[in-house]
Amino acid sequence: MRLDEGPFVGSSNARALRVSGDGGTAVVLGGAPTDSLIETLGALGTVDVRRCDADPVSSLRSLADLASQRADRPLLLVAADLDISPVALLDLLDVPTDRTATLTITRGALSGPPQHAAPIRVSPHDRLVHSVGTSRHVVSNPTAYAIGVVRVRGADRERAAAAWREGAAILTATGLPATASTAAGPVDERDERAVEPFDLALLTLVRAGLAVQGAPVGPYSIRRGEDVAPGAFGSAWQQRLRAASRGNDGAFSMAVVRPVSRRLTAYGLGHGWTPNAVTIVSLLLGLAACALAATDDRFMWILAAVLLQASLVVDCVDGEIARFTRRYSAFGGWLDGVSDRIKEFAMVAAVAWVAVRRGEPLWMLAIVLLALLAIRHVEDYAYTRRVRLAHAAQTPDLVGLDVSRDLGPDSARTTVPSPPAGRAVAAHKLKQVLHLPVAERYLIMSLGLLTFSPVLFLWALSVAVALALLWTQTGRIARALARRDRFDPTHPDLHLGELLDLGLLAGPARSFTERLAGRRFAWQLPGLLLAAETAAVIIALSDVPDRARWVGYAWLVAVSWHRYDTVYRLREVGRVPASWVGRVTLGCVLRIVLLLVVATVGGPMAPILAWGALGLICAYAAESTIAWTSASRPSHRPRHEVTA
Question: How many domains does the chain have?
Answer without folding.
Answer: 2
